[in-house]
Amino acid sequence: EEKMKRAFLTLLGILLLSGCVSTMNADEYSTLKIKILNLETIVKEQDKRINELQQRLSQTEKKLEEEVTNRFLEAQSKLLSEVSDLKKDLQLLQSKFEDIQFQKEAQSDLQAKTLEDINTRLSALELKIKELESKLEGYSKGESPKPNKETQANQTTTETPKVSTKEPTSNQTQGAPEKPKEKLTEADLYQQAFILFDKGDLKGAKKLWEEYLRLYPKGKWVPQTHFYLGEIYFKEKDYEAAILEYQKLIETPGPNPLKPKAMLRQAEAFLALKDKKAAEILLKKVIKNYPGSKEAKEAETILKRLR
After folding, report:
1. pLDDT digit string (tens) for 149-177?
2. What 3-state DSSP class applies to 21?
3. Average pLDDT over the chain, rounded to an integer
4. From CA 260, how far away is CA 283, in angstroms rounded?
5. What percent of the chain has pLDDT over 90?
6. Are 303 and 189 found together in one domain?
7. CA–CA distance from 272 to each of 30, 234, 278, 279 (Å)?
8. What is the end-to-end Cα distance of the chain in Å, rounded?
9. What confidence score (pLDDT) does residue 119 get?
10. What tens digit of pLDDT does each residue of 27-53 get?
11. 265: Cβ–Cβ under 8 A, 6 or more apart, which residues?
């Protein structure tokens, strides 16, 4: 386009010169030539300005493209950083939530155990209070405490001393009859067994709990007694006996907070006996019957370890 302009101006100048040279004098010719030179100069300046504008436009486009790219990369980097921070915050919140949930479950388990212990102690106290009230009522009526059948059989019934040709009994040789032993109440017997178990005296606790079952086969703490007998057998590594005691608790009608623990302990006992299949069945049963419980989580952990 620029070349066409120059050619057009040159041709115009030639035509003007050739057409008018014969009729022009020297002054007119020189004036026309100056004008043509001026036009060429203007065209050159315009071409130069166009080139400069094109260069500026090219540079501006390049700068704009670089700036847009840089801003895009900066925004992208910022977004990625924000997303990463949000993920970290989310993980932190999830961790805190799990900690709170674990603490809540642990506190709930502790509260349940404490509540069970308190109920046991309250029941024992109630039985003691009733026993004391009945004794006080007897004393207020002027009655003396009645000895049991065993002590009645051993006591002498004579009020005045009599000469006897028979050899004296062990009670008589001591000068006075022994004080009769009082029969332990249901609450006292269970509580004494629990105290021995808590102290680590497994044999003593086992003996008292077996006595409890013999004297109170339908007692209030029969299910708990079977559970703790199972614990004693488990610690003694008599796993088969432990499984049977836990089963007696599990088969007891109605809910009991020790049932999931008993079922979990049965699974552990079967694992100790190398019966993996029976253990897996019981672990899945714990998860199904007691979802969300501490025992269910322990069962899931054991199952993962077995796979």
Report:
1. 333 433 333 333 333 334 434 444 444 44
2. coil
3. 77
4. 10
5. 39
6. yes
7. 124, 10, 11, 9
8. 83
9. 55
10. 776 777 687 878 888 888 888 889 899
11. 230, 231, 234, 242, 246
Residues 171-190, mean pLDDT to the nearest whole number: 63
pLDDT band at 86 (very low <50, low <70, confident <90, very high): confident
Backbone φ/ψ region at 69: left (φ over 0), alpha (ψ -120 to 50), beta: alpha
Whether 120 and 191 have beta carbons less than 8 Å apart is answered as yes
Asked whether residue 171 is assigned to any structural domain, the reply reads: no
**What is the pTM (predicted TM-score) of this model?**
0.45
Rounded to whole angstroms, the Cα distance separating 307 from 305 reads: 6
Report how many domains make up the chain: 2
Contact call for residues 263 and 295 (beta carbons, < 8 A) = yes
Work out the number of other CB atoms within 10 angstroms of the CB of residue 230: 27
Structural domain harbouring 307: 185-307
Q: Is 75 in the same domain as 192? A: no
Q: How far is CA 228 from the centre of its chain?
A: 27
Assign residue 215 the CATH number of its domain: 1.25.40.10
In a domain, 143, yes or no: no
Within a domain: residue 264?
Answer: yes
Length of the chain: 307
DSSP for 197-210 reads: HHHT-HHHHHHHHH
